[in-house]
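Notes from the 1:1 (GR / supervisor)

We went over the backlog. Supervisor wanted to see one worked example end to end before approving the batch request, so GR pasted a single chain during the call. The sequence is below; no edits were made to it. Supervisor asked that the structure be written out right there so they could see what the output format looks like.
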Amino acid sequence: SFLHNRLGGLQVMPPGHDEWFYVRPIPGHAICNIGDALSLFSGGILQSNIHRVVPPPGAQAEYERWSLVFFTRPGNSGVLRALVESSPVIAEAVKNQPGRNFEAGSTAAEWFARRIKYQRINNRTGPETWAASRGTEHTPTVV
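Structure output shown during the call:
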């Protein structure tokens, strides 16, 4: 997603961290949240992270925050994997990370269905189902 905003309130938890960080809006610039598909397609060059929106900090808190969000994802039949044949940069990134798996083994529809299914608390039976509700934001390998 691309955000053009003037108020603070967006927070991210980057991979490998356990605390939230504010993202400071810069006038005339966009903030880009990378999703799981783009992380896989790029061979890990681009990384997704967990993000949330909280009330704006400090003096900005007195202003109303309005958002219009448009989410997009690959077509349902798109296979989620690193696009090594399309870019030598991606091919090199994958080659330099032999311990990571950039082949999801699923289509975009299957990936999305799994994420939604296990986000519902009644469908969780243990740590493995919680992990299945996550994307690529906290683990370098595809679940």
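Supervisor's comment: The CA atoms of residues 43 and 82 lie 5 Å apart.
Batch request approved.
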